[in-house]
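Side project, low priority. Logging it here so it doesn't get lost.
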Amino acid sequence: MKIISIDPSTRNTGWAVIEGLKRDKHDVWDDSEARWRYGNWIINAHSLQAKFQEHAEYMIMEFDINPEEDWLVLEWPAYFGSEKGQVAAQLGYTLNLAGIVGYCSGYFRLPWQQVHLITAVQWKGSVSKEITKMRFFRAQGIKKIFDVDHNAVDAVMLLFEFCKRKKITFRLVTEHSIPDLE
């Protein structure tokens, strides 16, 4: 079983996946063979509808989604009352992200119980991207700061927080981990 996390964007989408999860007959999770991967996709399409399809095609290339057991965790866009949030809403960005989330979750015909929509406030509160990135490096035990796309970081941390809260795993060891160079 795998759980896929998507931090959607119309230009640069972050993703993360934990694969190799198992549950016993008592619904107890076994993450002893779990593997983490993450990355980001640059979205090149111009129309919103083409952006929907480009997201789905990236997901097809990156993940072998099994609708029988896999879960999808997506960051659901929320309205923020700040000036930046109001501008985003007025320009339609918030609705566009909701469209991408809806398309991605519907494209793979996952049962509704396997799709988890979580706002940024629900999984990280109101902390900045810089603090989220610091938490990402700390969770991996990395002492030096390296340049990792903030969308990928958000997708990893969204998935990590989801897994911790669901008591699926408390480990974050990723394929793309950067070794400490000290």
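Brief comment: Strands lie at 2-7, 12-19, 22-23, 29-30, 35-42, 71-75, 115-118.
Revisit when time allows.
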